[in-house]
Amino acid sequence: MNRLVGMIALVLFCSAGILSLIWFGNDFASYTASRQKLRVNKPVNQDLTLGTPVAFELKGSGFNKDTSVSLFMDIHNSDAVVNSFPLDGIFNHSFLRGDYLYLAPVAGGIQVLNIANPEQPFLVNEYLIGRTINGIHLSGDTIYFCCGKLGIAIMHIQKDGCLNHVGDIATDSIARKCVHVDGYLYVAAGSSGLLIYDVRQPEKILLPQRFKAGTFLARMDVDGHHLYLAGEDNVVEIYQITDPQRPLLVDTLPLSGTLYEFVVHKNQLFIGTEAGISLYDIKNSPRPRLIHHWTDLGSSRRITVGSDRLFVSDNFSGLRIIDPSRKESPKYFDLNIDPRTISESNSHLFVAGSNKGLLVVDKKQLTSRQVVNTYNTPRSARDLFIRDQWMYVADGRGGVQLLNLDEDSGDLLTVSSGWGESFCANQDILFIAQAKEGISGVNISDPGQPKPLFIWPEFKANRMAVTGRFLLTSKGILGIDLINISDLDNPVINSHISDVHALDIVADERYVYVVTKKRGLLIYEITAKNKLSPLGQLSTPFPMNHFDLTVAIEVKEGIAYIANGRSGLLVVDVNKPAHPKILSSIAIPGISKGIKIKGSMAFMISHHGGINFVDIDDPENPYILNSLFMRGLSRGMQINDDLLFVTQKELGVTAIAIPLSFTKKKVVSGEQMEVVFPSPSFPGRYSLQVNNHRESVVVSGVVNYE
Fold first, then answer.
1. Residue 300: beta bridge partners?
2. Are 614 and 601 in contact (CB under 8 A)?
3. CA 23, CA 114: separation in Å to the nearest integer?
4. Calpha distance 203→464 (Å, rounded)
5. What stretch of H or E contains 226?
């Protein structure tokens, strides 16, 4: 009997051990898979028609039950980049000669790359190490490098692409730019004006002829025997230089707006200012004749003339390309780089900029970015409000604009010409914050026909919130106000808090939530006496014992979601307003500065990080579902149907498709996963983003929808 009991016990023990091993084995396998590096092989590209779901069998490593996959419209031009050559630093100048590319990094010197095989460039040599290059002028096989305080370096291009140092010209000022004409070198030398050197005998270069000494000159170019100069007074002066040492002023061209750069090419003058780019004809006369002006460029810092197109490096939007033979708006291209210098061959573009190395771009594959729509606004789009397919845009310098999203024309109606900062709506009243210019309001019962209601110049506001009969305003260093708006003709400030630097504000029926620059989250109660009474402040535990920069806030169902600067997203339980409690914090690419909540998704705008889509279904465990890098984003963001509208300052307003989540997912193993997505609503090229809680992988161009 005892033996039988012992045998049964042994069998039960072994069975339990086997089951434990199975369970442990499954957990261990899952753990092992979760620790593998996330890697995704690119699946075979699919061409589908709208309305057709798409299925992928993904292979790679690091897949587990927590792996998320999203399908998104590829708004970048990554498919056109055929290679990325790693180079350190920022590059401002380059030129192409035969099979060799010459690049000037800000840190100094010249780097020579062999591009005989454009898709596999390699570094040949470096020259002038330690010298900062402000400008480059190529005359035949001779190159003149403007090296700032170190003067001018003269080098000769050899047949093998290498450079031979011919000599130097010492200057007693900063050499900024130079041009060579008929044996004379003209140097724009800042406050020393124009220096003219006779370089017909490089071994016997004499002291320069000085011209316009005391006038600051930084920009110049030449067309035949006419020299174009510009200083700090936003005037281009045109000189005849048939007598090289005695330039003769023949015309001037006053400009509206700050001058950024100008280029002369094939009897045409291109001028970039803060007002856009102007094209002038100078074929038959040095006197410029305006042909066309492109207004929708915010900061044309660098202009490069290619074989038949104009490449514009715009600080706000990236790369713009203009066809001078057409008057259409410049096309926008996003290469995920700040394109400071561009050189063009027959088949490729060589693009360099800020710490991304050299990008080699196939011109045949380069198409303008695909987005659902772009709406140009006058100057600097900052905030949005949408009702019934009517979109209001607050423009920092162009007032408030209104347009119909159902029409393709994109025609703008000016609602207000004052400063446009942000919006807040209460039923049929749209409040418009105009920063230091006050607050105005319009009736939007018919959103296509807004009717002015009031202007309150004495009330300042950057951000606003409405609850009941109160309007709450955050005013930056000026604090916050509780304004009784029961009588719109006689609004009254019932309460003012001055000791906070308020950055954003939201409110519900009882409580007011304020995010501040230094004190984090503050919660107030509106008392029966119509006053703001401090109720709670978030105390963060070590090591989170200080806030980063709580820029924006949304509150939903007792949970506050805070855009927290470099620290990403901060999630706070405010169900007990007197004792708010942190639930979670997640890093977000860039510097978080804007947030909107819809359903179980947080849409976050980041400076240098673009748009991030965060799953907040479990507020204690949020995770990034998708990230889209976009330039020049301000804080304006609205969700309308399947579209996300964002403000991009000088680029206006851009509508992009919201990434799609899968309808079916099956993790076969750590190396294989099957996912199915519904059809998107818009045609275009789509990519996959695969995430786990540690890593993210983007697989570009996996499906095209027509």
1. 314
2. yes
3. 58
4. 70
5. strand 226-230
Q: What is the pLDDT of residues 534-561, one digit of tens each?
A: 999 987 655 554 556 778 999 999 999 9
Q: What is the Cα–Cα distance from 120 to 113, expressed in whole angstroms?
A: 10
Helix (H, G, I), strand (E, B) or coil at 648: coil
Q: Does the pLDDT at position 693 exceed 80?
A: no
Between CA 91 and CA 338 the distance in angstroms is: 10
Amino acid at 215: T
Q: What secondary structure, in 3-state letters, does 231-271 show?
A: CCCCEEEEEECCCCCCCEEEEEEECCCCEEEEEEECCEEEE
Which one, of 439, 477, 445, 430, lies nearest residue 461 by Cα?
439
For residues 275 and 290, give the distance between their C-alpha atoms in angstroms, rounded to a whole number. Answer: 15
Residues 6+ apart with CB under 8 A from 538: 520, 521, 572, 580, 582
φ/ψ (deg, to 5) at 614: -115, 125
Structure tokens at 527: 């008392």
Contact assessment for residue 110 and residue 147, using Cβ atoms and an 8 Å cutoff = no
**pLDDT tens per residue across span 182-193:** 999 999 998 899
Q: The dihedral of CA 522, 527, 529, 534: what is its sign?
A: negative
Name the DSSP letter for residue 315. T
Distance CA 609, CA 595 (A): 13
Cβ neighbours of 345 (radius 10 Å): 17
Within 10 Å of residue 543's Cβ, how many Cβ atoms? 6
Q: Give the DSSP letter string of 443-501.
A: E-SSTTS-EEEEEETT--BSEEEEETTEEEEE-BTT-EEEEE-SSTTS-EEEEEE-S--
Which residues 6+ apart lie within 8 Å of 560 measured at CB?
Answer: 513, 521, 553, 554, 571, 572, 573, 574, 580
**Mean pLDDT in the chain?**
88
N residues, the chain: 706
Joined together, the tokens standing for residue 480 give 């916050």
Backbone phi and psi for residue 671, each to the nearest 5 degrees, phi listed first: -115, 0
Q: Highest mean pLDDT: which of 13-27, 270-284, 307-321, 612-626?
A: 612-626
State the DSSP string of 587-617.
--SSEEEEEEEETTEEEEEEETTEEEEEE-S
The per-residue pLDDT for range 411-435, each reduced to its tens digit, is: 788 898 888 899 999 999 999 999 8
Closest CA to 241 of 269, 211, 214: 211
Six token digits for residue 488: 């719109």
Q: Strand pairing partners for 197? A: 185
- Decide if domain 36-75+652-706 falls under CATH 2.60.40.10: yes
Place of tokens 């294989």: 672
Distance CA 307, CA 285 (A): 23
List all residues 6 or more positions away from 29 whose beta carbon is below 8 Å from its beta carbon: 670
For the segment 561-603, what is each residue's pLDDT rounded down to a tens digit?
Answer: 999 988 899 999 999 999 999 999 998 988 899 999 999 999 9
Cis peptide before 121 (omega within 30 of 0): no
Containing 208, the helix (H) or strand (E) segment is none
Task: Measure the CA dihedral 563/567/572/578, to 10°.
Answer: -100
pLDDT-derived band at 398, boundaries 50, 70, 90:
confident
